[in-house]
Amino acid sequence: xxxxxxxxxxxGNAMLGLPRQLPQLALRSIKPNRAxxxxxKETIASGHLPVVLCRIxxxxxxxxxxxxxxxxxxxxxxxxxxxxxxxxEYVSLLAGNPDIDAVFVEPCLTTWxxxxxxxxxxxxxxxxxxxxxxxxxxxxRVKQHKTGWSIHNYYCGGNSLLAAYSAAxxxxxxxxxxxxxxxxxxxxxxxxxxxxxxxxxxxxxxxxDPARSWPIENxxxxxxxxxxxxxxxxxxxxxxxxxxxPNPVACLPQGSEIASHVEALATVDCFVGVDSxxxxxxNALEVPALVLLGAFRNFSGYFPYSGPHAxxxxxxxxxxxxxxxxxxxxxxxAALLQLLAAGRLWExxxxxxxxxxxxxxxxxxxxxxxxxxAKS
Length: 376
Fold this sequence. Notes:
About 40% of the residues lie in helices and about 15% in strands. Helix 5 (about 90-95) links the parallel strand 2 (about 80-85) and strand 3 (about 100-105). The protein has 2 domains: about 5-170, Rossmann fold; about 180-375, Rossmann fold. The protein is an alpha/beta fold. It has a 7-stranded parallel beta sheet, sandwiched between helices. Strands 3-2-1-4 form a 4-stranded parallel beta sheet, with helices on both faces. The protein has 13 helices and 11 strands. It is globular, with a radius of gyration of 21 Å.
């Protein structure tokens, strides 16, 4: 699907759903988010600086930009009080983050624009949007000015999501890892698996962008091979690709909250999937990961992840220079077995052995983290 068709489809979906959202939009126009407005006033009255970060939707975008909160905390010091504005389904991801003092709910970008006008002028507003971002309810643009960052160039020059969004917000952030402290603590508290236990692997092969999804047939073939190799699989996300079939691939109940899927991800030995929100969660949790990347729009060799562990020894990227469908189940199965073996070496305190193995295993391991396996 071309970019123009993607944008047309998104606008059409917004228009179809708009009649259902009109009552809430009308109510918000009369009664904007009083809790956020009062929080800003009280913060100013206490002698502090209210900092309001806004990224409403998309799991991967929110997780990737959590590092902005920590950066602003360091930049402004103890004087700052930091709030985040997002849709209700993402609130639990930000809970327990020491760099975020409060989380407020706005259902869409249009309602955010309504409340933004009522915030005290002393408030530092950090909008993590590109110039091209539009409201999913109304199709309205968020920005009233141009930052130069749009859907056409945000991955150019090796930019990660964090780099692009923070630059568009006017506060460029260095290459910092995303933060999900609540779930990181859950992962740290898990019991180590016995040596003979089956590897537990989380999988996710669908994306909102069709070009970043792996074909269902490939996904199912890979899962059958992983099961035959002795792995236990759990499929993340509510869009079932492989667990709908009569096979022992586990999944969460339909309609489970995002937090439940991230909690499940925190318990696994590794993650295998496409470039989606759950890949960003694996990055934040430092879960060993195998991410599948293919050609995407006009971007060549894009890599959306930030943080040193995204490029560490337990992070691998299988890249197709053409369609993602050109990555075969055999490619992915072989890379998974290598990743699991690397994880076992690393957990046994033999990181040096692993690095030596990588250095002598070219071209399977192309520095620093990408393995190209298919060409257009």
